[in-house]
Amino acid sequence: MTIVEIAKQLGVSPSTVSRALNNSHQISQATKEKVHALVKRINFHRNPQASSLKIGATKTIAVIVPDVSNYFFTQALTAIEEIANNNKYHVLIYQTHESHDREVDIVNELCNGRVDGVIISVAGSADKDFIHIENLKNLVPVVFFDRVIDKPEIPTITCNDYESGLAATTHLLEKNCSNILFLGISKQLSVTNERLRGFMEAHEAYGLKADTKQILLCENENIATEAIKKTLQKNKPDGVFSSVERYTLILYALCNELGVIMPDQLKVISFFNSTMAPLLSPPLSSISHPALQMGKAAVEFLFQKIKKKMAFEEKNLVLNCTFHFRKSSE
Q1: The pTM is what?
Q2: Are the beta carbons of 97 and 313 closer than 8 angstroms?
Q3: With left for phi above 0 and alpha for psi between -120 and 50, is residue 56 left, alpha or beta?
């Protein structure tokens, strides 16, 4: 008999059975006694590998990110690995490549007892559910960083995305831009939502209404390339606020192809952690995350959850981004 079958027989969830077997403080004494009585009667023995998931015996954590080639995630992973190694933990790194299905597969694999905890920055696929993460957090400690979803019981490390979006858009408006293009991924992502909220409210503060045709939410680079090119040709924006680093590089290439001159015809500011920003032509006005600090905070939060026996007071840390104004938005 499996834990799922035990749960069904007792009329409780599998996570309740698992927690009862681990003597969790979250489960009532009456439920624990009911579970232990049944497993004793049927001579149930847990899979050692699965059990290690709860007792922290694997000495391994997993980090799930959209793309390790993104310099922000490279920096964050550097901090995570350093602190994990100092704590004698191994780190497994997984890439979703912005695929929700891939993220689900990875999480389901990790539910089988491979790790003691998970740090995740969610994929950008739109209109998807997050049941897989709900299941995961019932089995192991989970911490979100950068890209988060609304799960109050899971600690998060984010940046001041709303304030940054507001300041970036205000900067373009102050430079007399009146037809500003917003580049993002998906409204399901907290970072897109918050930056877009700042974008919209900056327009309102100037007595303007942002044109919805100038809000491009693209799930991948192919879609982004086609959409940005069409918008540059048809709608002719005079400013761009990009919340996606790689879409900014696509924008630069398309401006070169179409003969759009920055900053004379188009002023640009972007979230961009890569050291390439000042080397682009023209040098890019950029907003950078405190990536090392975010990675450090994420792994420290995770170790608190792994090592703490009693209830963990969930935390949400918001760090400030840094602006670097350069020629692209002059």
Answers
A1: 0.78
A2: no
A3: left
Per-residue pLDDT reduced to its tens digit, 44-70: 655 544 444 444 468 999 999 999 988
Question: Residue 219 class from Cβ within 10 Å (0-12 exposed, 13-18 middle, 19+ buried)?
Answer: middle
Within 13 Å of residue 136, how many CA atoms lie on the same side as its CB?
Answer: 28
Q: Cα separation of 55 and 50, whole Å?
A: 9
pLDDT tens readout for residues 101-127: 999 999 988 987 789 999 999 987 655
Three-state DSSP state, 44? coil
Tokens of 49: 């590998």
Q: Using CB atoms within 10 A of its CB, is residue 133 exposed (0-12), middle (13-18) or buried (19+)?
A: buried
Tokens of 48: 């050692």
| C-alpha to C-alpha distance for 99 and 140, rounded to whole angstroms | 22
Tokens of 301: 């939060």
Among 156, 243, 151, 168, smallest CA distance to 203 is for 168
Q: Which of 190, 173, 171, 192 is nearest to 243 (CA)?
A: 192
User: 148-151, long-range: CB within 8 Å, 24+ apart, which pairs?
Assistant: 148/121, 148/122, 148/190, 149/122, 149/188, 149/190, 150/190
| For helices 3-10 and 29-42, angle between their N-to-C axes, nearest 10 degrees | 120
Q: For residue 62, give the nearest of 125, 123, 140, 156 by alpha carbon.
A: 140
- Using the structure block, give the residue that is written with the tokens 């990536």: 291
For 323, phi then psi, to 5°, come to -95, 140
Give SS3 for 171. helix
